[in-house]
Automatic annotation (TrEMBL):
Protein species of origin: Planococcus versutus
Protein name: Uncharacterized protein
Lineage: Bacteria, Bacillati, Bacillota, Bacilli, Bacillales
């Protein structure tokens, strides 16, 4: 059974992702799969562990880094950037009778939006 947007957001919140560093964000266009990795805390063990979120059957992905408006230590290269989550919001949309999740992530110095059919949190 497909989870609601609220249930998915609650599962993500339980990983304590806020202010966690994004460790990996990859899009495999041949599989239409986005894989996201970050370190979070487990509610059960209370220990830090790596979480993987799979966005499956993606119809749209947008990843855009920028420097405009940056303050403090300005990176000289995109390789010098570290990205930290502030928020992840999920809403359900209907496009031509196809039920999709639209995911927007608030990550300073990055625009990140994904539209997909399913989301799995591992």
């Amino acid at each position: 059974m497909k989870l609601s947007c609220q249930e998915l957001e609650e599962k993500l919140m339980a990983t304590h992702y806020i202010d966690s560093e994004l460790k990996g964000l990859n899009y495999d266009h041949t599989k239409h799969l986005v894989t996201m990795k970050y370190m979070g805390l487990s509610d059960v063990e209370g220990e830090e562990r790596e979480y993987t979120v799979l966005f499956k059957e993606c119809f749209s992905t947008i990843f855009n880094n920028w420097l405009e408006g940056a303050k403090g230590d300005i990176p000289q290269s995109p390789n010098d950037l570290a990205f930290y989550f502030h928020d992840i919001s999920i809403r359900e949309i209907l496009v031509e009778d196809v039920h999709l999740y639209q995911v927007k992530m608030v990550i300073p110095m990055m625009d990140c939006q994904i539209t997909c059919k399913s989301i799995e949190i591992c």
